[in-house]
Amino acid sequence: MAYTPHTTSYYAASANPSPERPPLNGNHETDVCIIGAGYTGISTALFLLEHGFKVTVLEAAKVGFGASGRNGGQIVNSYSRDIDAVERSVGAQQARLIGDMAFEGGRIIRERIAKYNIQCDLKDGGVFAAFNKKQMGHLQAQKALWERYGHTQLELLDAQRIREVVNTDRYVGGMLDMSSGHIHPLNLVLGEAAAVESLGGIIHEQSKVIRIDQGERPVVHTEQGQVKADYVVVAGNAYLGNLVPQLAAKSMPCGTQVVTTEPLDPELASSLLPQDYCVEDCNYLLDYYRLSADKRLIFGGGVVYGARDPANIESLVRPNLEKTFPQLKGVKIDYAWTGNFLLTLSRLPQVGRIGNNIYYSQGCSGHGVTYTHLAGKLLAEALRGQAERFDAFAGLPHYPFPGGRLMRIPFTAMGAWYYNLRDKLGV
Ligand SMILES: Cc1cc2nc3c(=O)[nH]c(=O)nc-3n(C[C@H](O)[C@H](O)[C@H](O)COP(=O)(O)OP(=O)(O)OC[C@H]3O[C@@H](n4cnc5c(N)ncnc54)[C@H](O)[C@@H]3O)c2cc1C
């Protein structure tokens, strides 16, 4: 069978040592079989193991092969659509439950890092940057909304103050969230996987699931083996393909690109982001950036609907990098890669059960570092018979993308183009 390594990225090049895990071979039994070793799968495994379950994780490639090992590393609170959108689409009690969980993922990440001593360069502080008054107005409303749900580590930044944290003249203001922050994303998931194994969990890499037989005890098949389990958790997200067709119908894989510069002169690096906060802007098609521990600028953006691999990643990202920091014109890019996230029409996570014993969580639509850690806790709670918080997400309505299989990509790209134009015009 072909061996699938990590994508060529700065994160893979600077990953902490991690063992090769053997593929699944032969017939096995367990309490819970998890498909996918990204944050969703590994976080679920860890919560379950902490509560005495036997767990086997099957990963098609390597731990952190998907978005969890490729992302911008930004710990962003709440969801890709904010709590106000949830309040508008579901009843008060369900919205209250989901709102109350909007800041839990970041806490889980910090607890995991402390408890299992994970070396992943955690830094506190993240900034939302506004290009115009309209976006600034949204940030003011967001601050009031988040404060209503008990999150108070927020500061609005005026034009002068934002320049003290981001050395560019592109923004009219922003909002600093001190419970946001950034991590080396691949090292986070590798550290969590080591924690899974320290508690007796089993992870098989190079073990693509090709079929799930539903039943009283479902059976999960790979090319060379099978696992019979009481429960299955599907955590393949944008890399799942058509393994579970009913999930694929209401979600769409999308690509986003990341580049990493050569290490910058330390003075230049700290002149760009003096407090070492991470930044994402408020555009619909947003850019996100931060410094690495070895003082490179990691800059992401350039969404591609339908997740085709772009021919030239650098050309999609460099223009906005240089517009943001003209000081870096012509800077050498050492790494450029693409990664897929899973978009839903509502941009809220797609969560639920198939029959009694197959559970899933996917589709956090761009902001998933925190939500996926929360998802692990919710899935584990549900399997332990406490499903109230899981069901709050499972009850969110989801619809297919307009345009059907053939036209949904151009239709969605057109919608994004429209919102992007509005961002540019500030209307
Ligand atoms: C480039 C990029 C930048 C991003 N930046 C940020 C950010 O800064 N902040 C933020 O909050 N969010 C960000 N996100 C989103 C975030 O990374 C994701 O929401 C999150 O990592 C999803 O985790 P996951 O475990 O659900 O999926 P993934 O990490 O994609 O993991 C799914 C895993 O399942 C495996 N798999 C799939 N099918 C099978 C199968 N049949 N058998 C076995 N294994 C299978 C895959 O190989 C993969 O390893 C970004 C995403 C990308 C792509």
From TrEMBL:
One of its GO terms (molecular function) is oxidoreductase activity. InterPro entries: FAD-dep_OxRdtase, FAD/NAD-bd_sf. Pfam families: DAO. Residues 1-25 are annotated as: Disordered. The keyword Transmembrane does not apply. Residues 1-17 have a biased composition (Polar residues). It comes from the Bacteria. Residues 31-381 form the FAD dependent oxidoreductase domain. GO terms for cellular component: cytoplasm. Keywords: Oxidoreductase. This is FAD-binding oxidoreductase.
